[in-house]
Design a protein that fits this description.
Shape: elongated
Radius of gyration: 25 Å
Strand order of the largest sheet: 4-5-10-7-8
Number of strands: 10
Strand content: 5-15%
Oligomer: single chain
Largest sheet: 5 strands, antiparallel
Helix content: 40-55%
């Protein structure tokens, strides 16, 4: 790497201008129209309500599914939900919390990529590489057309992991891996595999492997229950997408990133031999591009590939994350007027592509109540609904508690999220229905005695037998022994990581 640090300040100013250009829609009142963006605001508000009512870690969102609740947070990337809850606690609205997460993720990833590139390339080449990230068509697609908060946050986490590896900052790897694991399920698999390859080619691979393991352990509270309990929900039995319908084709070929493809072509045509690190980067980027187009269809027919990744275009995160390395490498392999021409071509591609994407944006301005009272499930095909629910409710119940059989009078009632307390006078032995979808973790007591829960009904809601007389019924959602063990593993991993880092610091 050649030192020309006098250019750092003007380069950072250029990157700041590019980021301001790309992120200005986040400052617009309201929210832009996207596939998932507003649904993520709704999920965040429901998550915060459960968190504020004492559920931790949050797994079951009682307001969603028409207030019948279901365990979506046990399976789908809770990272942005915890971060967004902190922002909301600090005074931001749920809408602004999501927009801040998106903006900070892009800014943080751009900075991490720039300083990672500086370990190998000049300031100018690192700047051009970073600009290729900021203006990446797939990043903008994720940001503004899909509104995928989780994917954008995961790209930031992966960029931080890349920075940790290239800088040799072992202390940063574990938090980055942990954040990646809880940011987005699919991106964590794809980017995690790429990070593993980079670690295995690092001279200090064993310590980085240890750091990565601490990060995986820190996220155990999420991924262990998600994997162990996957068979309890519909996920494995529902086809969410047909991969062949989501390959990148001629109509959306710009998502491949023409600047990255040009850079790959320049690198391959160059007579200079690739060092191992560069070869790994090129291989990963090319793999990401190939997996997103129809030529990879035989791979998608393999068991679990389509089910885990669902959409082939998601492999473009490799191009978004590592493409800047190839762009910077290509720039340093050209000289004189060829380098100038290449920069001009890149800039024209980025300005035209980003301008077209930003021009498409339209906004909606809704009241806060739209997000804080919305009771939809917020996912595509109810794939995280428990298997025993045969009829997904289309409307909210009239009451949280109702009498299915017998004669019961409900006296004082307290409903606080997933905590239900009620005084009951049963004139005969009766069956009371709690209009919440059952999921392991729910427990019901009558007069402090745990009683059986029956949920073999179309809605999968909880029913309990109440004996004759006056009673105190309490229902709440808590951790199961397995989930509690995963929580302990997360805590132990964080503590172990802090002790390990302290020992490493003392040795150096």
């Amino acid at each position: 790497m050649r030192k020309n640090n006098s250019l750092i300040l003007p380069v950072l100013i250029i990157m700041g201008i590019a980021l301001a250009f790309i992120l200005w829609p986040l400052a617009h009142p309201g929210f832009y129209v996207s596939d998932d963006g507003e649904w993520m605001v709704i999920r965040l508000s429901a998550f915060y309500q459960s968190l504020a009512n004492g559920q931790f870690p949050v797994r079951y969102l009682g307001r969603l599914n028409n207030s019948y609740g279901y365990p979506v947070a046990n399976f789908l990337y809770p990272g942005f939900l915890y971060i967004g809850s902190l922002f909301h606690l600090a005074g931001l609205s749920f809408l602004d919390s999501v927009k801040v997460i998106l903006g900070m993720s892009v800014f943080g990833a751009a900075a991490a990529i720039f300083f990672a590139l500086r370990t190998r390339f000049t300031v100018a080449a690192s700047c051009i590489g970073s600009l290729s990230f900021i203006c990446s068509p797939y990043l903008l697609y994720d940001l503004y057309r899909r509104g995928s908060v989780g994917e954008v946050l995961a790209i930031c986490a992966a960029a931080l992991a890349l920075l940790a590896i290239e800088k040799g900052w072992i202390w940063l790897l574990a938090p980055s891996v942990a954040l990646l694991a809880v940011s987005h399920n699919t991106v964590a698999i794809i980017a995690g595999a790429a990070i593993s390859f980079l670690i295995m080619t690092h001279k200090d691979r064993f310590r980085f492997i240890a750091g990565g393991m601490f990060g995986i352990g820190a996220a155990a509270f999420f991924w262990i229950p998600a994997l162990v309990e996957k068979g309890l929900v519909r996920f494995d039995s529902i086809v969410i997408s047909r991969p062949e319908a989501y390959f990148i084709g001629m109509e959306n070929a710009t998502l491949l990133g023409f600047s990255t493809i040009i850079a790959v072509a320049i690198v391959f045509s160059s007579r200079k031999k690739l060092v191992r690190r560069d070869a790994v980067m090129v291989a990963l980027v090319v793999t990401g591009i190939l997996m997103s187009v129809a030529v990879s269809y035989p791979v998608w027919k393999l068991p679990y590939v389509g089910q885990l990744v669902q959409f082939p275009y998601r492999f473009l995160v490799l191009s978004v994350l590592l493409g800047p390395w190839i762009v910077a490498m290509a720039l340093e392999r050209t000289r004189g007027w060829q380098r100038t021409l290449l920069c001009i071509v890149f800039l024209l591609i980025w300005i035209q592509g980003a301008g077209r994407e930003l021009h498409r944006i339209s906004f909606v301005n809704r009241s806060t109540g739209y997000y804080t009272t919305n009771e939809a499930t917020t996912n595509v095909a109810n794939e995280y609904m428990p298997k025993w629910v045969s009829d997904v409710p289309l409307s909210r119940p009239v009451e949280t508690l109702e009498v299915v059989d017998g004669d019961v009078s409900f006296k004082s009632r307290t409903f606080a999220g997933e905590n239900i307390n009620v005084d009951i006078e049963a004139f005969t032995e009766s069956i009371v229905q709690i209009n919440k979808v059952y999921y392991p973790g729910w427990g019901v007591t009558i007069d402090d005695r745990l009683i059986p829960i029956h949920y073999d009904n179309a809605l999968g809601v909880m029913r309990v037998v109440v004996p004759q007389g006056n009673h105190r019924l309490e229902a709440s959602f808590r951790e199961t022994p397995m989930r509690f063990g995963a929580d302990i593993l997360s805590v132990a991993s964080v503590v172990g990581y802090l002790i390990w880092i302290r020992k490493l610091h003392k040795r150096t």
